[in-house]
Amino acid sequence: MENGVWVHDLDPVLLSIGPFDLRWYALAYIFGLVVGWVWGMRLADTSPLSITRQHVDRFLTWAVIGVIVGGRLGAFLFYAPHILIEQPLQVFKVWEGGMSFHGGILGVTTAMVLFARMNKIPLFSLTDIIATVAPFGILLGRIANFINGEHWGRLTEVSWAMAFPRSGDLLPRHPSQLYEAAMEGAILLIVMFVVVRRFNGLSRPGLPTGIFLMGYAIARATGEVFREPEVLTSVLPFGTTWGQWLSLPMLLGGAYLVHRALHRPKAEPVKTRKGKTAA
Fold first, then answer.
1. What is the three-class DSSP state of 19?
2. What is d(CA 126, CA 140) in angstroms, rounded to the nearest whole number?
3. Contact at 8 Å (CB) between 207 and 247?
4. Fewer CB near the last or first residue (10 Å), C or N of the chain?
């Protein structure tokens, strides 16, 4: 405690064995991908489109590459392009941290487009499944951000304020990582679960993908109100943040996909030679 404010002192390293450190952040990525992989294969069984468990199984490697490459490149392109120009080798130092969600989603989207074309399956058969399971990984990632003491919040006087030494001071701040974990992770996960299970969202190609994009954009834009901006807001209009502007294309794209899905007939399953329903 410091002047009545809890000072963040959580250890980002879960376990150390010799020179090897197992960090909470890495564990969050691993566990999120594994759970998404298992859940995704189950969703493939219920999808009316021509996607199988084997497709989801093989896509796991593509997803890992897409997240890491996109996330790392996005972290520099969106937030520190000068480092990418002056010290390009920094992008390979994954162990030092630094990932961008918006970059990661661009990387995974690129991987999904390529994978769908190579395997001759409808693009939305894959994106709808990934969109449904993605909030679970986001939830774990935001919790890992909190444990790392990074992406801290703005100054505040709320009773649950915390001090984050990595911010360079011990002033009371919002634990914005936990707000984002709740909004981008837990709440969005519930929404996606309801869309798929209660309203059979997979029967409307593009609907789960669109709802995920809109839901994340709204949650991220809201979370940015409490999060310390990573790019000076003085250069952005109306007091907005860079994270909000990066989320705007997701909101517009998601709205288009939802409108498109709701104005097209539901996918009608047909039997394949293996008995898998497809359309």
1. coil
2. 22
3. no
4. N
**Residue pair 139/113 in contact by the 8 Å Cβ criterion:** no
Phi-psi region of 116 (alpha: psi -120 to 50; beta: other; left: phi over 0): alpha
Helices (H), the chain: 24-46, 53-79, 81-86, 101-119, 123-148, 176-180, 188-197, 207-223, 242-262
DSSP category for residue 159: T
> Is residue 175 within 8 Å of residue 160, measured between CB atoms?
yes
Domain ranges for the chain: 6-278
Which pLDDT band, with edges at 50, 70 and 90, does 160 fall under? very high
Question: Which of 202, 279, 265, 205 is closest to 43 using CA atoms?
Answer: 202
Between CA 117 and CA 128 the distance in angstroms is 16
Tokens 């992008």 -> residue: 91
How many angstroms separate the CA atoms of 87 and 211, rounded?
Answer: 38
Amino acid 234: pLDDT: 62
Three-class secondary structure of residue 1 per DSSP:
coil
- Write the CA distances from 113 to 13, 62, 125, integer angstroms: 35, 11, 11
pLDDT band of residue 232 (cuts 50, 70, 90) is low
- Give 104-121 pLDDT, tens digit per residue: 999 999 999 999 999 999
Token representation of residue 95 = 């162990």
For residue 152, give the nearest of 4, 15, 7, 255 by alpha carbon: 7
Q: Given this model, what pLDDT does residue 249 score?
A: 97
pLDDT digits (tens, 9 = 90+) for 33-85: 999 999 999 999 999 998 999 999 999 999 999 998 998 888 888 887 878 78
